[in-house]
Design a protein that fits this description.
By secondary structure, the chain is of the alpha+beta class. The protein folds into 2 domains: 252 residues, FAD/NAD(P)-binding domain, CATH 3.50.50.60; 152 residues, no CATH class. Strands 1, 2, 7, 8, 9, 10 and 19 form a 7-stranded mixed sheet that branches. Strands 12-15-14-13-16-17 form a 6-stranded antiparallel β-barrel. Helix 1 runs parallel beside helix 14. It is elongated.
Length: 418
C-alpha cells in the first residue's frame, strides 16, 4: 500500500505530525521502532508530562539553543495555546503550575499520550510498531521511499513525503538512541555533534555523596568557567551520590557540557542565602552569635542551614561544633559567610545520555527551511522535534518545539500533496 506521507517515530512530534497531515486529507502511516507508542513522552515531567509552557514567544527564544528564532514561523502556526486546545478537544483537562508550566489535570502522562493516540485514530492514521528505519530511498534528490526492518525482515515502502520524528539520543531505552542521525548524514545533511543536555553533573570528591538526597530550594547556582562566572539560575537543586542534579543544575548543564568538551575548568558555586548580600548575611550571623553567646555553635548552625548540611559545612569552616558562640572569631565568621555565599564544587563530567532529558546537536538548521521544515538538500524530506539541532531549558519548552515543528512539517507536506 502506498501512503502519501510516512512519519518515522510515534513520539510527541510523530503523533502531532501524523494527526495534522491526516486532518488535511493525507493518507498517513507512522513507523515506530519500539513495541509501543510514546515511550519517552510517558516519562516526561517525572511521569506527569509537562505539556508546554505559557511563556511568550520572546521568552521561548531566550530559552532555546542555539538559535531559537529559527522557530518563529513554526510558533506562529502552532504554539502553546494551540496544543492545549487540541488536547482539551480530546477530553484532556489541563492545569497551570509555577513557572507557567502546563500539566494534565490528572498528573498522568498516559492521559496525554491517550489523547494524541485517540486523535490519530479518529483521523485514520495507521501506526505500525516494531518497525525500525534502515534506509531512506532517494532518486534525483527527491524522496522515493524507505526501507525498514520488521520481525527480522527487511521491507520497503514507497512514499512521496517523509517526516523524520525519531528524537535524539537521550533516554535510549525509550527508542531514541540516535541511530537515525547516521541515515540522515548519508543523505548529505550536516549533523552538529550530539551531546547530553539537561543532564546531572558529576563533581570531584565525596562531599556531594555525603549530602545525597538533600534538596535545596530558593538557592542560586552559578557556573564558573576558568574562574569566570558565565551563567546563574535560581530555584531548586538536589545532591546525588555522583554530584549535582535538580532543575537549576540541569539548566546550567548545557553550558557545562560544552565547556568540559573544551577541557576548560568548570565549577558550580551555590549561594545558599541569595536573599542576603554579604553585608546583611554578616550582620545576621553576628546577631545570632551575640544573642546565643553561651550556646554551642553546632546548635546555632541549624538555624542557618538544613540539618544534613551542618556537619559538612562546619568541617569545611574548620569550626568545632562544641565551641560556644561568643568564642567564634571574626575570621571564623567570615569563613562561614563565604561558604554560605560560595559553596563550590568542581565539575568533572556530565552523566550519560541515559540520564539526559534532551539532546543538544542534531540536523543543522541552516539546511532546513524554517517556513516549511523541509530539507534544503532532499525534496519532500521533513524534520521535526529533537532530531533537529534545537534544545531548550526545562519547563515544557522542548515538547513545544516538537509540536510546533511537527505541525508545520505536516502542514507543508500535506498541502504540497493537495
Amino acid at each position: 500500500m502506498k501512503y502519501n506521507i510516512i512519519v518515522i517515530g510515534a513520539g510527541a512530534a510523530g503523533l502531532i505530525a501524523a494527526g495534522r497531515a491526516a486532518e488535511l486529507g493525507a493518507k498517513v502511516l507512522i513507523l515506530e521502532k519500539m513495541n509501543t507508542e510514546g515511550k519517552k513522552l510517558l516519562i516526561t515531567g517525572k511521569g506527569r508530562c509537562n505539556i508546554t509552557n505559557e511563556a511568550s514567544q520572546a521568552e521561548y527564544f531566550k530559552r532555546i539553543h542555539p538559535n531559537g528564532r529559527f522557530l518563529k514561523h513554526a510558533f506562529s502556526e502552532f504554539f502553546n495555546t494551540d496544543i492545549v486546545q487540541l488536547l482539551n478537544k480530546q477530553g484532556l483537562e489541563t492545569k497551570s503550575e509555577r513557572g507557567g508550566r502546563i500539566f494534565p489535570a490528572s498528573d498522568s502522562s498516559r492521559d496525554v499520550l491517550k489523547a494524541l493516540l485517540d486523535w490519530n485514530s479518529k483521523l485514520g492514521v495507521r501506526i505500525q510498531l516494531n518497525s525500525k528505519l534502515e534506509a531512506i530511498l532517494v532518486e534525483n534528490n527527491q524522496i522515493k521511499g524507505i526501507e525498514y526492518q520488521i520481525n527480522g525482515r527487511r521491507e520497503s515502502l514507497q512514499t512521496e513525503k517523509l517526516i523524520i520524528c525519531t528524537g535524539g539520543a537521550s533516554y535510549p531505552a525509550t527508542g531514541s538512541n540516535g541511530d537515525a542521525y547516521k541515515i540522515i548524514k548519508s543523505l548529505g545533511h550536516k549533523i552538529e555533534p550530539i551531546r547530553p543536555a539537561l543532564v546531572p553533573l558529576e563533581t570531584e570528591g565525596s562531599l556531594a555523596e555525603k549530602l545525597m538526597g538533600l534538596s535545596l530550594k530558593n538557592v542560586t547556582a552559578s557556573l564558573w568557567v576558568n574562574g569566570k562566572k558565565q551563567a546563574e539560575e535560581f530555584g531548586e537543586m538536589l545532591f546525588a551520590h555522583f554530584g549535582l542534579s535538580g532543575p537549576i543544575i540541569l539548566t546550567l548543564s548545557r553550558l557545562a557540557v560544552d565547556e568540559l568538551r573544551k577541557n576548560n575548568k568548570v565549577e558550580v558555586s551555590i549561594d545558599l542565602k541569595p536573599a542576603l548580600d554579604d553585608q546583611k548575611l554578616d550582620a545576621r550571623l553576628l546577631r545570632d552569635l551575640n544573642e546565643n553567646g553561651k550556646k554551642k555553635i553546632g546548635t546555632i548552625f541549624k538555624l542557618w542551614l538544613p540539618g544534613k548540611l551542618v556537619p559538612e559545612m562546619m568541617e569545611l569552616a574548620e569550626i568545632d561544633a562544641e565551641k560556644e558562640c561568643h568564642q567564634v572569631a571574626a575570621k571564623e565568621r567570615k569563613k562561614i559567610k563565604t561558604l554560605m555565599k560560595d559553596f563550590r564544587f568542581k565539575v568533572t563530567s556530565a552523566r550519560s545520555f541515559k540520564e539526559a532529558i534532551i539532546t543538544a546537536g542534531g540536523v543543522n538548521t541552516s539546511e532546513i527551511d524554517s517556513k516549511t521544515m523541509e530539507s534544503k538538500i532532499i525534496k519532500n524530506l521533513y524534520f521535526a522535534g529533537e532530531v533537529i539541532d534545537l534544545d531548550a531549558d526545562t519547563g515544557g519548552y522542548n515538547l513545544q518545539i516538537a509540536y510546533s515543528t511537527a505541525w508545520l512539517a505536516a502542514q507543508s507536506a500535506a498541502k504540497k500533496e493537495v
